[in-house]
Design a protein that fits this description.
Organism: Neodothiora populina
Distance between the termini: 38 Å
Domain CN hydrolase: 1-251
Keywords: Hydrolase
Order of helices and strands: HEHHEEEEEEEEHEHEEEEEHH
Largest sheet: 6 strands, mixed
Strand content: 15-25%
Structural class: alpha/beta
Strand order of the largest sheet: 8-9-10-11-14-15
InterPro entries: C-N_Hydrolase, C-N_Hydrolase_sf, Nit1/2_C-N_Hydrolase
Protein name: CN hydrolase domain-containing protein
Length: 273
Amino acid sequence: MVANLAQCKIVIQKAVAAGAKALFLPEASDYISGSPAESLSLCQPVTSSPFVLGLQSEARKHRLPIHVGLHEPSDNPTSKKIKNTLVWIDENGVITNRYQKLHLFDLDLSDHGGNKMKESDSIEAGNEMSKPFDTALGKVGSLICFDLRFPEVALALKRQKADIITYPSAFTPPTGLAHWHVLLRSRAIETQTYVLASAQCGAHNEKRTSYGHSIIIDPWGKVLAELGGAEDKKEKGDAWEPEIITAEVDFELLKKIRAEMPLLRRTDVYPEV
């Protein structure tokens, strides 16, 4: 976690230099472990986690809100599972919003020579949505990674007036190559919101590699900015360091798209999400 905090500080410096009003970091920015047991041993409450305390200090120092994915202990002291959460640290360094991942990534391609990964072996699924919350960038709705495959929850955030929906992620390269861009653009188009997806990139350990391709998409589905992927990180080797992308949230564009193409749901025919 110390090394990850150091990487995050590099990103923070770049965000400050770019004049960013907020920083959005990936899912599991504190660590990605090689086993459930290791993950459980690393997990700490936010009140004592050096990683979280370090980010809170940076947020206060730079007056920069930080949206970050991390792990937190279960509320059940006897549980062998932990939480995959997303917190908003405001410009005063205070955690003012929290979301616990609803949909867990369970993948079994072993019959086809592929990977087997079961997030549910070590992670507790959340039981409620976090309502969009006010920021200098508009109302932010928080979702995480595998939540991307469930449009219902994004549509629910749209109904609650979200301007931005986030998908901080650690996508696998095979699923990222197949589905990352098409799913993210679809969520932006159907919700008429900005979509921000900050993504882990490259190899974490012998078992895990992440796809990368952090991306910002506007409410028309246009890709405004995108970073490279695991292949780019591998090519750069020791010369690689964390990067940022930036974009402006255009409230007039949000208003224009929603006015010119109103998505009026037929809730007299099907249930409202």
